[in-house]
UniProtKB/TrEMBL annotation:
Domain DUF4440: 41-149
Keyword DNA-binding included in the entry's annotation: no
UniProt protein name: Putative lipoprotein
Superkingdom of origin: Bacteria
Pfam families, per database record: DUF4440 (PF14534)
Keywords for the protein's UniProt record, in alphabetical order: Lipoprotein, Signal
Cleavable signal peptide: 1-18
Classification via InterPro entries: DUF4440, NTF2-like_dom_sf
Length: 158
């Protein structure tokens, strides 16, 4: 009988260990501090919009992590590093006409930790002759007190 009880206890213990752990940590609960971090992230995104609409790609890039480990994915390609991403923007949007006017909207910002967040949103460029648009997902980290984009996946609806 002791053997049967031990076997059942062992099986129950193994089953408990085998149950999957949550895939991700829950988001940081809403607090005044969390709200302040979300406001700081939104300010980075708004500053990027303003820089873009001034035709200032270099100021737009200030929202990105200046690191060779930055990841930017769009159009079926992945660009690694701040330098490569900056060059990609300067090449693809070489004139004010190509840049157009950027409008971002539908922000969904989730704090994952005090120094990590995911930001989702929509983008649209208003240019003479076309209005490309799409969605983006940004992984943001608070590095040396500043929220920066460390990974950007931007898709086109067109």
């Amino acid at each position: 009988m002791k053997s049967l009880a031990a076997a059942i206890l062992l099986a129950a213990s193994l089953a408990a260990c085998a149950s999957p752990a949550p895939a991700t940590a829950p988001p940081v609960p809403a607090t005044a501090a969390a709200d302040a971090e979300i406001a700081a992230i939104t300010a980075v995104l708004d500053a990027q919009d303003a820089a873009w609409n001034r035709g200032d790609i270099d100021a737009f890039m200030a929202g990105y992590w200046h690191s060779p480990d930055l990841r930017f994915a769009s159009g079926g390609t992945v660009t690694r590093g701040w330098e490569g991403t900056n060059q990609r923007y300067h090449t693809r949007y070489a004139t004010p006409e190509l840049m157009g006017r950027l409008d971002t909207s539908d922000y969904e910002i989730v704090l994952l930790a005090p120094d990590a967040a995911i930001a989702h949103g929509a983008w649209r460029l208003d240019r003479a002759g076309d209005t490309p648009s799409g969605l983006y997902t940004l992984v943001m980290r608070k590095i040396e007190g500043a929220w920066l984009i460390v990974s950007d996946t931007t898709t086109s609806a067109d």
